Each structure stands twice: as structure tokens, then as C-alpha cells.
């Protein structure tokens, strides 16, 4: 049910954007409109936001189309099956991390919403993820340790910044999605090899 709510919410955002952003006009961009509002009106000039001014028009137009496609795709991915839904969840993490980096919009609450689909799998298959060398390699905790160290560094550098925490949270979420997808693929390969 939560997945259907996410799909509906994303569809409403994507449909509205599709009416204005998919225009095949390189002289205007919906992404640039958001960036200008965040950068100039709201003084959000952290991380990669200053670089957007130097992006070529074709890239900015591509951002528009990718955002619309991403926001209109979750229903299809959900209907296609669990594997496609998990891939969409990974893309969602990358999409929202890009929003933090380029637009300085946090979306940190969304980590918890999407995490509902990732965390139970980790909890149920904790032994597979963290103990089995055949599934995750010899040192599965290294990636999580690096995320933890990065998170501590970010919190100590600017402890009051929600944006800094967002980068840490989305980075950890993306690593969790990649670990989940990798483990599932490797686990299926092991089952095939053992059969």
C-alpha cells in the first residue's frame, strides 16, 4: 500500500511537470527555474549549486526529461515486479541526492519512506548480507564503515546543517540499495550454480 501511495505521489508531480517541462525547447528549462528560485531567492548556494550556471542547455533540458520520466515511472516499475521496483528505489535515491547537491533541497524525510522497502530485507537477511563471504565478498562492512566515518565528519563540520545530513542519509540509502541488488543477484547466481 505504501508503494502505491509513493507511485501516486510521484505520478502527480511528474504529470504536472510533463505539461510544462517536456517542451523540446532548449531555451527554457523547468530544472533551471527551480535552480534560480533556490539559488537566487532562497540563497541556497552550497555543494554543486554554483556549477549549474555553467551547464550546457542540452544537459539542462535532459534534466527536465529525466525528472519527468523518473516521476512517471514508478507505477510501471511496481507492476513489472519486485526487481524493477528495487531498481526504481535506487534511482530514487540518486535522484534525491542530485536534488540535494544541485538544488540544495533536502528531502531527508523521503529516506525513511523509501527505506521501508530496503530495511526489512536487510533485517531478515542480515546473515547473508554481513556474514557470508560468498555473497558480499570478504569485507562487507568496509562500505558501511566509510559511510559512518563520512557521516561523523559531516556532522562535526557543520552540525546544524540539514543538507549535510541529507547527503549522508541519501548516500547511505544508495549504498544500501546497491548492496541489496548486488546480494540478490549474487544469491540467484549461487542458487543456479548449486543446482
What does the model show?
The protein is mostly helical. 78% of the residues lie in helices and 0% in strands. It has ten helices and no strands. Helix 1 (2-21) runs antiparallel to helix 3 (57-72), helix 5 runs antiparallel to helix 10 (162-194) and helix 9 packs antiparallel against helix 10. The chain is globular and about 45 Å long. The two termini are 35 Å apart.
What does the main sheet amount to? none
Order of helices and strands: HHHHHHHHHH
Could you tell me the radius of gyration in angstroms? 19 Å
Overall 3D form: globular
Task: Assign the structural class, choosing from mainly alpha, mainly beta, alpha/beta, alpha+beta, or little secondary structure.
Answer: mainly alpha
Straight-line N-to-C gap? 35 Å
Poorly predicted ranges = 132-140
Approximate strand percentage: under 5%
Fraction of residues in H or I helices: over 70%
Oligomer: single chain
What is the count of helical runs?
Answer: 10
Keywords:
mainly alpha; 195 residues; single chain
Short description:
By secondary structure, this protein is mainly α. It has helices at residues 2-21, 30-41, 57-72, 74-80, 82-103, 108-124, 126-130, 133-136, 141-157, 162-194. 78% of the residues lie in helices and 0% in strands.
Helix and strand layout, with pairings?
Blueprint: H1 2-21, H2 30-41, H3 57-72, H4 74-80, H5 82-103, H6 108-124, H7 126-130, H8 133-136, H9 141-157, H10 162-194
Amino acid at each position: 500500500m505504501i508503494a502505491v501511495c509513493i507511485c501516486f505521489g510521484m505520478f502527480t508531480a511528474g504529470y504536472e511537470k510533463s505539461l510544462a517541462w517536456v517542451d523540446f525547447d532548449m531555451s527554457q528549462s523547468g530544472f533551471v527555474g527551480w535552480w534560480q528560485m533556490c539559488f537566487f531567492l532562497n540563497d541556497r548556494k552550497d555543494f554543486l549549486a554554483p556549477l549549474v550556471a555553467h551547464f550546457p542547455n542540452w544537459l539542462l533540458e535532459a534534466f527536465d526529461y529525466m525528472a519527468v520520466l523518473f516521476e512517471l515511472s514508478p507505477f510501471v516499475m511496481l507492476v513489472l515486479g519486485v526487481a524493477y521496483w528495487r531498481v526504481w528505489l535506487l534511482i530514487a535515491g540518486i535522484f534525491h541526492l542530485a536534488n540535494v547537491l544541485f538544488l540544495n533541497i533536502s528531502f531527508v524525510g523521503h529516506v525513511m519512506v523509501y527505506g521501508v522497502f530496503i530495511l526489512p530485507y536487510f533485517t531478515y537477511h542480515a546473515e547473508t548480507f554481513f556474514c557470508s563471504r560468498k555473497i558480499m565478498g570478504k569485507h562487507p562492512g568496509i562500505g558501511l564503515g566509510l559511510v559512518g566515518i563520512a557521516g561523523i565528519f559531516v556532522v562535526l563540520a557543520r552540525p546544524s546543517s540539514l543538507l549535510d545530513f541529507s547527503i549522508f542519509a541519501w548516500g547511505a540509502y544508495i549504498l544500501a540499495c546497491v548492496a541489496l541488488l548486488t546480494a540478490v543477484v549474487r544469491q540467484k547466481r549461487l542458487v543456479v550454480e548449486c543446482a
